[in-house]
């Protein structure tokens, strides 16, 4: 869904197109949080933490999700009959399990957690160099735009 928002505003959010392809977290079904039995469709998803992702990039993802929900709610007759698989609620927790998705290469520097980068730089300088980090930050401009939507 986030990619639809990004591509619907290409001039303002073009920088996010590559970032969002690589920066979305995975999730796992919360089987303990519900009593719906084996039917997975209504079960909430626990969003896993990406240890390499910056707080600012996480904030961008949340802003995109909020904007998507606002757009859905503003569509007339959207409360009518739903088709397709129902969306599952996503639960974000500060102590969520870590994702196994690896850090993507070539993102702008403000997409990576500075603490994670420091750790990688000291523990595995070769891998740090292979990350091919773009030293030009882009997220401040993106956050300003998204907060204005």
In words, what does this structure look like?
The structure is a single chain. The radius of gyration is 17 Å and the shape is globular. Strand 2, helix 4 (55-74) and strand 3 (90-92) form a beta-alpha-beta unit. The two termini are 16 Å apart. Helix content is 43%, strand content 6%. It has one domain. It has 149 residues and is mainly alpha-helical. The longest helix is centred in the middle third of the chain and has 20 residues, at 55-74. The protein has a three-stranded mixed sheet with strand order 1-2-3, with no helix packed on it. Residues 82-91 have a biased composition (Basic residues). Residues 73-99 are annotated as: Disordered.
- Tell me the major beta sheet: 3 strands, mixed
Overall helicity: 40-55%
The mean pLDDT is 80
Judged by helices, strands and strand pairing, the structural class is mainly alpha
Question: SSE order, as H and E?
Answer: HHHEEHEHHH
Oligomer: single chain
Strand content: 5-15%
Label the overall shape.
globular
| Structural Rg | 17 Å
Report the uncertain regions: 33-37
Strand order of the largest sheet: 1-2-3
Number of domains: 1
The number of distinct helices, counting runs of at least 4 residues, comes to 7
By DSSP, the count of extended strands is 3
Q: Whole-Å distance between the termini?
A: 16 Å
């Amino acid at each position: 869904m986030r990619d639809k928002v990004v591509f619907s505003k290409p001039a303002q959010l073009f920088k996010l197109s590559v970032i969002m392809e690589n920066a979305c977290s995975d999730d796992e079904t919360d089987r303990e949080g519900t009593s719906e039995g084996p039917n997975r469709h209504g079960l909430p998803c626990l969003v896993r933490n990406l240890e390499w992702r910056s707080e600012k990039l996480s904030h961008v993802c949340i802003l995109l999700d909020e904007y998507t929900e606002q757009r859905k709610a503003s569509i007339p007759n959207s409360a009518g009959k739903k088709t397709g698989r129902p969306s599952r609620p996503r639960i974000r927790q500060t102590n969520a399990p870590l994702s196994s998705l690896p850090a993507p290469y070539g993102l702008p520097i403000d997409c990576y957690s500075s603490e994670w980068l420091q750790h990688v730089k000291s523990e595995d300088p070769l891998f740090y160099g292979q990350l091919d980090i773009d030293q030009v930050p882009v997220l401040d401009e993106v956050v300003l735009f998204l907060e204005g939507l």
